Task: structure prediction
Amino acid sequence: RNPRARLRIKAKMESVFPESLKALKDADPEIYELVQKEKLRQIRGIELIASENFTSAPVMEALGSCLTNKYSEGLPGARYYGGNENIDKVEILCQDRALAAYRLDKSKWGVNVQPYSGSPANMAVYTALLNPHDRIMG
Result:
């Protein structure tokens, strides 16, 4: 590629994936370089798989934060382990925002925002939309 195209790609990488991996670069340059190559691969192509779509920098920052260090099985206010005061607040805020996004009344509706991987999320959709003995292809 020409130098101008490389600069455009580098600018795009910084706008989509701002550089926030200095600690990784210092601790493990080899993994850091592989992460950089993956960023470039994602920017150069279009993935049509929903679970591989672009994640915004703020979401990546939250997912890479100390929130991931906390085991928080259960529901807000009724966790199996202590120390979830802030996790509970994050989850309740997420629930409130989900209800607001669909203009739903909190007194009439509830929402579970916990599925962390595609399998539980898919299962939630399947059980909501399918009848017993319906077939799923794919």
